[in-house]
Amino acid sequence: MIVYRIGRTKFSKDLSGEGARLHGGRWNHISTPCIYTSETRALAVLEYTVNVNIDDIPRSLSITTFEIPDVGIKELSIADLPGNWTEFPAPASTKDFGTNLLKSGASPIIKIPSAVIVQEFNYILNPNHADSKKFKILKVEDFVYDVRIKTV
After folding, report:
1. Fewer beta carbons below 10 Å: N end or C end of the chain?
2. Which of 44, 31, 58, 49 is nearest to 4 (CA)?
3. What pLDDT was estimated at residue 129?
């Protein structure tokens, strides 16, 4: 399976989940590493857009293409998630939920609905899982962010 992530070029080859470990995210607390990816390039752009301030968009961005196994994926539906999972900023309930899943080590990959487009999916990769060695970076390409997305 192929998934995508947009981020700073200097972190484009990171398979450790260091950025999420340092800053946290919707599905993880600070100190819990993971790698946020999306099922399409377009969803990756939308996810990046809703999580960055226009003044903080770096000049050097990349889109990373990952290959991940098609097996061992924990699929979650909206009914599985905390009731307030789409709130902004991300509530503690989602951070608790995702952190518990990641720390349980039950699965190397979590398939979860996107809070931006609930009919599409993000894949959270667990770099601490024994099967994380199967995550492969296929390609890193320069990505030029079109600021029209963030401006009126």
Report:
1. C
2. 44
3. 97
